[in-house]
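Lab notebook, bench 4. Still working through the backlog of constructs that have no structural model yet. Next entry is a single chain of 652 residues. Request: give me the structure tokens for it.
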Amino acid sequence: MADQITAVPVAVSKWHKIAWVLLVVLLLGSAGGWVWYQRQHVAVSKPATSSVGTGATSTTSTTTSSPALFTGTVQKISTDLGLFKKTDAATPVTYYSAGTYASGPLTGYERIIAVVTPDSPGVPVPSFLVTKDRKIFSVFKNPLAATNSLDGWDAAKVTAVVDGVTEAPDTITLNDSFGAVQIEVTTAFDQSNTTGTNPLLLDTDISARTLLGTTSGGLKMYDDPYAAQTIDPSADAASKTYVQTKNTYFQGTTGIAVIDSAGLVYTYREASATTLAAYVAAKPAYDAAVKAYNVAVAKIQASSTPNANYPDYPNITEPNLFFEQSEATTTQPLYSTYHAALTSVCSSDDNAWVAKGITDGDLTKIGTVRGQDMFVLKDANNPLYTAQYNRLPDDADFKDANKGLSKPTFAEYVAKNPIIFMKDYFGRYYILGEYQFVLPSGCGKPVVYLYPPQTETVKVQFTAPMTLTTSVPTYNNGWTVSAKPNGQLTDLQPQNTDCAQFSPAKFGQEYAAAACASHTYPYLFWAGQGHSVQYPTVTTGWVVSSSDLAAFMNKTLDNVGFTATEKNDMLSYWLPTLEKTSAPYYRISFLNTAQMNQIAPMSIVPQPDNLYRLFLDWQPLVSKPTVPIAPQQLEKVNRTGFTAVEWGGLNR
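Model written out:
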């Protein structure tokens, strides 16, 4: 029959889909549809009308543009299609119509995208389905899943699994020096909602973006513009200067938005051809390892054997524009590693910053990296150098974080060229900064409590790239612990942790030496930086005076349902941290579970029934703002079944 499509047999399983392309993670507890690629790699050409600067060599593809795969455009569906077995007000689902297939095996089928605001610890991934009548649906097959199960979907509506087809390729070849890798379908949290969960939505707005070029398949590529930050007049002078420097010199990032023929926006990261080729070569083995991991975990979950030995989640080196000193050809001194400049917060997306207002006359060539010219600023007192240097902590904290190394003076720091400029494929200067020194700033002491209904072996792993500066016990591709219902954790891999590294005199680690000696811990402690997404801009919260700070924090944590132990643990670290700034006022805000699942996505096996993540974002203020900010509505901890709770905060 004309309306039939070939379905893939499915088996019932409690395990669901894996996040795709670069950020491949196990989405425990949420169903999803996988987009399988019709064209894995494409070339690119620039439009004759686009202004992309100089210094880039374009390779014009001889391949003609493919006919549009879709008719129609992405439209939000106002009604709830009810495709999942159950809905939770705390995890809203938003549905979109994303065009109708105009050719191929899915001709005539409407593409549906379900965007779930996740409360599970993985990266949120939209689910793709197709339908002819919005009554019966088929979900896209996930080739890396242990089984392509329909568990989690309403069986009366979602009846089959099919091979998905998309226009968006896995990677794009720009020329012999540059390419791009797909990261995700572009989403954003709805920040207008201040009364509960900020739902995750598709982001299809390209009005502020500039056209960069067109792929050989006819898909348009747009830039990723920088959203200038508002300078808070109540902030301290250093914070104001830092924000002003970014506003002055950042035009955007090297991220690329690729738009399919229905207007669906995909996020890509520009990368060197060298790192992209290595990624492409490693991807088949990585995909096989992910599938093997999923199969192994599914077998363990189906077994009644206690204290199972959970496998490690696979890793892959991501493509980007960063470089190591060994890849450079120069007579000038360099640091060992260069990543995005001015990176000091809890999370970044591994794109470089595109420079604004920097001309050829501002720069001096000092060598090459992978055959591409690299430059430094002629003015050693440029504010970018100051901002990069001011990321470093005071000497005592610098020594502690960098194995006793003394903090360099500003002149010593600049002499080794901490800021490097290079040109990307589109002829834009991008800015890299030294990444050699360890910074204590970033995600500061997030800790994870585990409360299973009965004593159980639990494996916790990050499923996207993280740079960890501290972990207790030591993180070695994950933690494996025996967790008791009261939260007590026994490290099942004590050989990975050297107890001599812990000192009772170290703030925040007073317990660690004794816990290490007994292999028993109250929680899993980590600190560092994520590399999945840019740290979000905070627009809601509270302004609290220093005299009211302790009472406010106590009341807030009581209201969200923290236990006395969790509350005391958090306040014993963060109250002194805030108070040492001696500010008269503080802006207090919190990132929620869904936001932290993007910043630091985790796999927790077995899957918790409930996960709650609370992350303190704060800023010292020299005065009380004249314009109040909108307060947040924080969700409460649900402690039904196996519960995982995490708190943390932003180290400044």
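Notes after review: The longest helix spans residues 273-302. Residues 1-41, 45-64 have pLDDT under 50 and may be disordered. Flag for follow-up if needed.
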